[in-house]
TrEMBL record:
The lineage of its organism: Bacteria, Bacillati, Bacillota, Clostridia, Lachnospirales. This is Molybdopterin converting factor small subunit. It comes from Frisingicoccus caecimuris.
């Protein structure tokens, strides 16, 4: 089980600040975000335990995932 925290546009889109998911792969995680399609999730920055990971990362029980929209500026 991983704990997922949502920030920025991701939090506004889903209406949740955090949730738990029983997932093992990044694809499973992207399919389990409430209120967002996998296509929408692919545009988010995803950190696991505070670090960027590859799309091939396999989750461990207790991992903490942060999902947020990429920074923009002008």
């Amino acid at each position: 089980m991983v704990k997922v925290k949502m920030f920025g546009v991701a939090r506004l889109k889903t209406g949740v600040s955090e949730f738990e998911a029983d997932v093992h792969t990044m694809d499973e995680l992207k399919n389990s975000v409430p209120g967002m399609t996998k296509n929408e999730v692919k545009d988010l920055v995803i950190l696991v335990n505070g670090k960027a990971v590859s799309r091939w990362y396999r989750f461990n029980d207790g991992d903490e995932v942060v999902m947020l929209s990429p920074a923009g500026g002008g």
